[in-house]
Write a structure and sequence with these properties.
Elements lengths: L7 E4 L2 E4 L12 H8 L10 H14 L8 E2 L8 H13 L10 H18 L5 E4 L3 H16 L3 H4 L7 E6 L5 H9 L7 E4 L9 H12 L3 E2 L1 E5 L11 H11 L2 E5 L24 E3 L2 E4 L5 H6 L30 H14 L11 E4 L15 H6 L1 H12 L3 E7 L2 E8 L7 H15 L3
Parallel strand pairs: 3-13, 5-6, 5-7, 8-9, 9-10
Antiparallel strand pairs: 1-2, 4-11, 12-14, 13-14
Organism: Salmo trutta
InterPro entries: PyrdxlP-dep_de-COase, PyrdxlP-dep_Trfase, PyrdxlP-dep_Trfase_major
Protein name: Cysteine sulfinic acid decarboxylase
Length: 436
């Protein structure tokens, strides 16, 4: 629903705020926004009227990620089935650590994980839902050394040889390096593997880095990415699996972005070889191992249906119920195809729903050989984004990468996107950037 003000609708006891318009944000500078929100925490609390005013302000000045013109991050749009079950889980306020306190959701998580493992190609295994892909990566980097050196649980890292992690040069997700620091492996033991123009690991360089690491450390996880966050590129899993088998490495596949292709008969070939990994990740971490590594790595007693001992958390949200309705995914591929047709010379032909391109303003057209061309071109994306945000019409990300100056990264993922939205995206970039 859209409107120009904020009426409160009461529907069967629920207060519903109707949020206006298609603007993705009402931009304010930090000092101005802090004054508008009046964020002071008062000792005597607030009246109901004041609380409602604050809720209005939160809705008014927050970035709206649900309208189709928000394409700034990898998540966008609203899936109403998931929103509905979120109301349910928040109302029940269940923490998912034992069957005793969360019987329905413990069984539900078990079933959903079994389905995820079957999509990977495993008939059995283990796993747990996590509050995001970064935590899933951390689980893999915790379980992998325990699998090889179970004494680490009792004696700690000091009793082991130095450990090494292998990730993509510059493009590996920062959670890998962060986990290496957090878990005591050390960031200097994160080996950077060269990538090609698309951002995919070069298997030959992985092999060389493993040999180099053998003289300094012992290898543990080798995160292979399926769906890089910028280009949407998929690492070649089969040759990486061959190397991991030969070198005795734990193969972990970061599929937080691209894993959805496993639901598609047409596109799942992008992850050919996924069944050969030891662990994968999205907002869950499925494991091929059937020896209850998660439980043994973290727990001290056996309660077969209790999940609290698998987790590094205690309280844990019920995430397994929010299984995304994938029927709309075909629309995002159609939207991506339309964008690619309309853009002259994208950065590269996309493999996934990431479309990377630049807008060349009139003042730079035909000036490709000018000495300051790249410098001036790099400034176009930031200016266009600033103008769009301050006008509230659209949010789209930009970044440099692999020697390329700033380009736009259009993420065509919202189930609400239409062909008309695709037209709007391109027209809006041209409108706000034509005078540059």
């Amino acid at each position: 629903l859209t409107c120009t003000h904020y009426p409160e609708l009461y529907f069967q006891g629920f207060l519903v705020l109707v949020i206006p318009g298609l603007q993705v944000c009402e931009w304010r500078e930090p000092e101005e926004l802090a004054a508008l929100l009046d964020l002071e925490l008062r000792e005597n609390g607030e009246s109901q009227h004041q609380l409602l005013q604050r809720v209005r302000a939160v809705a008014k000045y927050s970035v709206k990620t649900n309208p189709p013109h928000f394409i700034n991050q990898l998540s966008a749009g609203v899936e109403y089935h998931v929103l509905t079950v979120r109301f349910l889980t928040e109302a029940l306020n269940t923490s998912q650590y034992t069957y005793e306190v969360a019987p329905v959701f413990v069984l539900m998580e078990d079933e959903v994980l079994a389905k995820l493992r079957s999509l990977v190609g495993w008939t059995e295994g283990d796993g747990i839902f996590c509050p995001g892909g970064s935590v899933s990566n951390m689980y893999a980097m915790n379980v992998a050394p325990y699998h090889t050196f179970p004494e680490v649980k009792l004696k700690g890292l000091w009793a082991l040889p130095p450990l090494a992690v292998f990730t993509s040069q510059k493009l590996g997700h920062y959670s890998v390096t962060k986990a290496a620091a957090f878990q005591g492996i050390g960031t200097e033991n994160v080996f950077q593997i060269k990538v090609d123009d698309r951002g995919c690991k070069i298997p030959e360089d992985l092999d060389e880095k493993i040999e180099l690491a053998k003289s300094q450390a012992r290898g543990i996880p080798n995160p292979a990415t399926s769906g890089t966050t910028v280009h949407g590129a998929f690492n070649p899993l089969e040759p990486i699996a061959d190397i991991c088998d030969r070198q005795g490495l734990w193969m972990h596949v970061d599929a937080a972005w691209g894993g959805s292709v496993l639901f598609s008969k047409e596109h799942r070939h992008l992850m050919r070889g996924i069944e050969r990994c030891e662990s994968g990740q999205c907002s869950a971490i499925p494991l091929k191992d059937t020896m209850s590594l998660l439980k043994h790595c973290h727990s001290f007693y056996d309660m077969s249906l209790d999940t609290g001992d698998k987790s590094i958390q205690c309280g844990r949200k019920v995430d397994s119920i929010a299984v995304v309705d994938v029927e709309s995914s075909g629309l995002t591929w159609l939207g991506r195809a339309y964008l690619v047709e309309e853009i002259t010379g994208p950065i590269e032909q996309p493999e996934f729903v990431n479309v990377c391109f630049r807008f060349i303003p009139p003042s730079l057209r035909g000036k490709e050989n000018s000495p300051d061309y790249q410098t001036r071109l790099s400034e176009v994306g930031p200016v266009i984004k600033e103008r769009m945000m301050k006008q509230g019409t659209m949010m789209v990300g930009y970044q440099p990468q692999c020697g390329r100056v700033n380009f736009f990264r259009m993420i065509v993922v919202s189930p609400q996107l239409s062909r008309q939205d695709m037209i709007f995206f391109l027209d809006e970039i041209e409108r706000v950037g034509n005078d540059l």
